[in-house]
Prior knowledge:
Pfam families: DUF1330 (PF07045). By secondary structure, this protein is α+β, with helices and mostly antiparallel strands.
Amino acid sequence: xxxxxxxxxxxxxxxxYGKYAKLAGxxxxxxxxxxxxxxxxxxxxxxKDRPRNVVAKFPSVEAAETCYHSPxxxxxxxxxxGASERELLIVETSE
Length: 95
């Protein structure tokens, strides 16, 4: 079953977060992920507002989780830590 990787982000250091973004995209693609929303227009209806919202579709929850724990993504993530406040979750789709 496909899965969505959903991130809600407030960037606090643009330069460091840019390094994360440069490395994260290829790591996500390597694990079968494809971006379907990336920082576009949004409407916050409930919860904490995070101005950057990203959704990637993966072949499965397992593929998305494997990506997260991969050395490539963890290297990318090292640039996001301290450069952003984020929430990230993986949810299985119904299709």
